[in-house]
Amino acid sequence: MPSISSELRSLLPADFHGYIAVVKRDCETCRLIEPALRELNGSLGLLIYSQDDPEFPETIPQVRDDSALELSYRLEIEVVPTLLRIDGGRETERLVGWKRADWRRMTGLPALGKGLIDFSPGCGSKSVDPGMPEKLAYKFGDTPLKARRIEVAGLEDEHELAFERGWSDGLPVVPPTEARVLRMLAGARRAPDEIIGIVPPDNVPCSVEKVAINAVMAGCKPEYLPVALAAVEAACRDEFCMHGVLATTYFAAPIIIVNGPIRDTIGMNWAHNALGQGNRANSTIGRALQLVIRNVGGGRPGGVDRATLGQPGKVGFCIAEREHDSFWEPLSVERGFSPDESTVTLFAGGGVHPIADQKSRAPESLTRSLALSLRTVMHAKSYGGASALLVISPEHMRVFREAGWSKARFRDELSQHLTVAGREVMTGADGVAEGMPARLADNRLSKFGAGGLLIIHAGGAAGMWSAVISGWAASGKHGSLPVTIAIKP
Amino acid sequence: MKLLDPTSERQPGKRERLPRPRSLANKRVALLDISKPKGDIFLDCLAGQLDDLGIQTRRYQKPTFTRVAPVDLKHQIVSECDLVIEALAD
């Protein structure tokens, strides 16, 4: 058994050795065993610490007040009653709950608790009530957090402070107190000081702790943290080119697509309004990534963020795929992961463009129809450099399912309708200066480069609408490539 | 309350005060009476001295010293003046 800490020693009588019991009035077992506690107090000098009422147990003199829970915290009490023995500066034995035979053996009192029941399990310690461990860690100084502390002055409003210091994207943020950040960190099994990437544009090494702080501000629950961490890691990958995605005058922003079991674990929405508002996980995970880029990376609109118009998804854009009734393999599986793995895929994209087709019942018609809209991505005369995320709704998926079209078949057929004669889209064609170089007039041109079209299934059950999310103008290996990584616990 | 800094911590933790002007020449000076007794006497004296130096002043008054200045008053001062001298105590 380890030696007791100096902090714990200072809470006990000098050179203490003997028995300690930790109890609370709001515990039926603790009230039940009051006669045994009294007997131990009288014969063995048992020290009793009460978590919720120093008057309890009333029949025992000099009950010690642990309503601040420091002793409970430092002894790592999880259940009351707990009986433990300290000898020679070490804890030598511990019992939790009431098991009469064990208490008799440990104390050497063969008649202890005569007349009481044999067993009663006890209750949770107040020191492990929800949220309490983090508060106690903060209160008693055992914090692994290294971030600079910003004092909120007495008359200052913490929400206004966040705006004034430029921490906000324009919406209110949750003030990142130490207790909240500790609670957030408990959502992942990562060391707070682990560096997970270099965040552009200032190229700042970003720790798990800094992501947790920004995730608190974004409104995340602790269980979202692994997803937010994976998103930041993906954004920092060289091939994603986050600096360029941020600095471009185009509409692009990192769009997070979540696949795998974690979607359901954390309650993400992939059904009605799948690309919209209203779900906490969807709304806050994307925002956490954007706040990391803003606060850690220093990327701000009008600064390195040079977007001409931007788009609402730059507050945060995180969606989940509807996997359980899709006829096609999920995006993550297409990209080499197993269906049991949870992943994030980052795609540099713009806003949502609807595709309305309420008449196609044959896969051939629907494929041609989707291609017509996909051909307008970026510009109807832009070919080769475009990328897009196609979101197929359940009602459109039904058409492919009933016809037995696989995702590979759909991709193959679609690509044929996304290939045109160069002269149709060259500069000057149709009286429009925008277009492909005249030297390509005799070539067949494909709308998207290799890997430039991502396809997922999402949305509510009703509605023959799909959607296309246009990619960044500089997609591809010289710009941004989609990045998929596994979400670590 | 203490908050954890979400940034790269490259900026100072405490916000710097604006630097004091080296001179009042060509500055528009607001004289703010917070409605505490005798503040007006102090500001009258100050206004006279600034006027002798050829410095332009404008007078403003808070409705009561017990509350912070109304937003409209703050906006008015910001739009009309470069700096403020406030008579704080009686």
In short:
Chain A has about 500 residues and is of the alpha+beta class.
3D architecture notes:
The complex is a heterodimer of chains A (489) and B (90). Chain A has 489 residues and is α+β, with helices and mostly antiparallel strands. Chain A has two domains: 6-128, Glutaredoxin (3-Layer(aba) Sandwich); 160-486, no CATH class. Helix content of chain A is 30%, strand content 21%. Chain A is built from 18 helices and 21 strands. The mean pLDDT of chain A is 95. Chain B is of the alpha/beta class. Chain B has helices at residues 39-52, 71-80; strands spanning 2-4, 28-33, 56-61, 83-87. The chains are: A alpha+beta (489), B alpha/beta (90). The interface between A and B is medium-sized, with 30 and 12 residues. Strand 10 of chain A pairs antiparallel with strand 1 of chain B.
- The tally of helices of chain A reads 18
Question: Regarding quaternary structure, how should these chains be classified?
Answer: heterodimer
- Which regions of chain A have little confidence, pLDDT < 50, spanning 5+ residues? none
Q: What can be said about the biggest beta sheet of chain B?
A: 3 strands, parallel
Series of H and E elements of chain B: EEHEHE
Q: Beta fraction of the residues of chain B?
A: 15-25%
Indicate the proportion of strand residues of chain A. Answer: 15-25%
